[in-house]
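As described in the Methods, two query proteins were run sequentially through the folding procedure within a single session, without resetting any intermediate state between them. The first query and its resulting structure tokens are shown here.
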Amino acid sequence: MRSTLVEGRTAIVTGAAQGIGLAIATLLAEHGASVVISDINIDAATQSAESLRSKGYHAIAVACDVTDEQAVESLADTCQREFGSVDIMVNNAGITRDATMTKMTLADFRTVLDVHLTGAWLGTRAAGRVMREQRRGAIVNISSISGKVGNFGQTNYSAAKAGMVGLTKASAKELAKYGVRVNAIQPGLIRTAMTAAMPPEVLAQKMAEIPLGRIGEPEDIARAALFLASDLSGYITGTVTEVTGGRHM
């Protein structure tokens, strides 16, 4: 029997062509949502949407640069036009430009903040505009445990992910009276293309810090996002959920 935690709802997931974003979009679709696979890489997004449709799910691909105000507003409008509403917004898009502060350029610092933090703010504002009128909705911001503890060589990324926590809490307070909930997830070490590129000894060192003894999978983040997007979390807003296997608890 198919699960239907978000049956009949619509969801936008940014940065959803692959990795964690695609895992979230897939699980939402499996639980009954119509999903907008949004990504700056439209070819990859189109392929992912076609894959979901081939399995009988409702999915479309929309190109979007999350730092472009008009593109993000259009993304919300497209979801509403195609599927009738915007019920779930997952701000997941992100990049890295790692370097120590002495070597990091100002451009790379600003670019990472712009994609993660400004992108999440624009996504929250655009989805919130529609959700306020509907008087319902759930927004999930994908932060990172680095926003809690800071990562060496990631002053830009850690600052952006910490900022997303403040954004989550402030926007949750603004949108609560409209029936709109806003929560954040802080993933830990997750099996993605980025972790696959790590030297084996570095990965092993990081895994040794995880009490549950394994690396996380994109599906671990997707399950948390599904919970926060569904009515199971109907009395939860302004929170930060760590999905880290206990690392940095």
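Immediately afterward, the second query was submitted; its sequence and tokens are:
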Amino acid sequence: MIVIVDERKLVTEGYNSLFDREGVASAGFASGEFDEWVESAADEDVKSVRAFLIGDCGEDAVSPRKIRGRTWAPVIALSEHHSLENTLRLFESGVDDVIRKPVHIREILARISAISRRAQEETSFTEIGAMRIFLDGRDPEIEGQSLPLPRRERRILEYLASNRGRRVTKTQVFNAIYGIFDEEVEENVVESHISKLRKKLREKLGFDPIDSKRFLGYRLVG
């Protein structure tokens, strides 16, 4: 999930719509609401956020360093003021990148992926057994052959791969894929997506690579 912080509801709703078209969950806040949420949200909710986009909030209304105290997800400033002085001020406040508007939504996603790779010293994919799972939106490969997946199933596989070696709960998967504020979708939809994903992977691999335990969650195995 990606969080957008901007005082203008029209802006946050616009980004929500654009991210939704790319199959990426998002949520919008005004700065006051966001500050309260960062301080009070459960660790599980904060860690489900892939990146924070900070728009027009007034100087010092949002503290990147306060965000950094809860998570290492990238913090990116969306700037409408194209001056060196403003750009330097934003970097000094603690953001990881400054993007000048207007900008295509795919460039934002590409920058988020690039920052995350550098921070975690990761390649753009992870290999688990015969699976090569890309972390940049491409379909996975099994023994070198592409396996086309619907975007939700692909995002779930990417999320499981990024948490390799750890179990993730149904709630964590739902929050990462749909966002923690999506009240129109039932959490149990995750079970349906994972069931379909397991069937496709089992047909290609000859076994089920998603280990699940009741109450403990899911884990990707080779």
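The chain has two domains: 2-120, 125-220. We note this only descriptively and draw no conclusion about the first query from it.
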